[in-house]
Request: fold
Amino acid sequence: MAYSILQHLEFNAWANGAIADTLKPLSEEQFYRENKGSFPSIAKTVLHIWGAQYIWYRRMRGESVKKAPMVAAPPPQNEILAGLIDSSKHFIEFVNSVNPALLSGKYRYTNLRGEPFEDTYEETLFHVVNHGTYHRGQIVNMLRDVGVTTIPGTDLIHYLRARHK
Reply:
């Protein structure tokens, strides 16, 4: 069977879960420590992934999102990690709940600056996974900076190998 968008979303949920499991034992100091990444802490990087997933999911459901979520004081560590995992699962539920033909169709939305766009559902879903992969890589570097030495492989091939065992 050909690799599908559903499998790709399941990979994303698996990889986010593996990263979340690695982040759970971190102290608050390690989790919120300022660094020189794209986002100034592990916490803010995870919040960015969660926030982007939140926004894209709502756009695909036809909801209007006017501002980025969670930009004020960050929630506690356990809520951030739970939000990352839950938002990853929403995409799997979405794909399982719609007619597969819808995924090649387009939807319209307005970005946070008020600019109108039109994208296909499937292209957006691939973007969401790619976006998460990029930022998980940044988190790996930040984990090394805070002294974590045991970091799971979250590349797609690790997921595919685990599925075939």
